[in-house]
Amino acid sequence: METHTHSILLYYCYADIEDTEAYREEHHLFCIENNIRGRIIISSEGLNGTVSGLKEDCEKYMAYIHSDPRFAKTEFKVEGHDKHAFAKIHVRVKPEIVHSSLRHINPNIKTGKHLEPEEFKKLKDQEDVVILDVRSNYEHELGHFKNAITLDIDNFRDFPEKVKELEHLKNKKVLTYCTGGIKCEKASAFLLEQGFEDVYQLHGGIIKYGLEAGGEDFEGKCYVFDNRIAVDVNKVNPKVISKCHVCGTASDRMVNCANPTCNEHLAICEKCGWELEGACSDECKEHPDKRIYDGTGYYQKQSNGYNPYKGLQRKPNKEKIKQAVHEQANS
């Protein structure tokens, strides 16, 4: 039986936060003191995060979130891992917890009906049902549900405009899905606002569906926003659907182009990856700022000298600073 020392947590919670800067500082300090790393967004509308840490530290982190009445309902998707999935901790205040053009929507007031993974699994193949992927192009090109409708969008903020293409489906049951569920909260609410009457969302997204329902009929891999880049979901009937951007052979190796000015998210097979030194084209291969390719296609920002306490108002313990800088600079 496989055992893991670390956990990766994916979560969100729509809840009112009045003093976002004060909460950001409190949250950031808790992460530093418990060696939690990752990306966390704090907004007046709630929280959104992906973090990693030792199993016991992640348990403390989840307890910390749940201890606040505002976030008591937060649901965590927990995956095992053998190390940190991030080199740093970033806790930022932003206008929204997921960038959209739907700021007027409050999912706590109105949103699509939540379907648990097994409910989604039973409903998805019915005749009057359509499955709608609300993610971006590079995500659903790597993996999506069998027979899903995908929209040509590069960012979630483009979703409202593309909904016009779905007018003919207003008499159907529309099942929306995304990576962890957060985008569907607003996407399904917007569909209801536009006159769609029977709208659902996969609660917990693709990640929860893989953990709880075996991932059946999810074809390809799921793009994730940490150093794993892509993860397996389907344990029942897996299938590779993405093709190498360079040679066209079947490949689910997702990389970032080694040319930082390009940095496209693309499927590139191992052979082409090495031949082009991690670039997506000969032109990118010759770029003077091309990054060194190590076979993964993931480029961690340089963390040497990174001070996790930078920007905090509270005076930190000097020994803790020294230890944190040392650990993250050598990660």
From TrEMBL:
Segments for region (Disordered): 295-331
Annotated EC: 1.14.-.-
GO molecular function annotation: oxidoreductase activity, acting on paired donors, with incorporation or reduction of molecular oxygen
Keyword flag Transmembrane helix: no
GO annotation (BP), single: tRNA modification
UniProt biased composition (Basic and acidic residues): 316-325
Function recorded in the entry: Catalyzes oxygen-dependent 5-hydroxyuridine (ho5U) modification at position 34 in tRNAs.
Protein name, as recorded: tRNA uridine(34) hydroxylase
Gene name, Swiss-Prot/TrEMBL: trhO
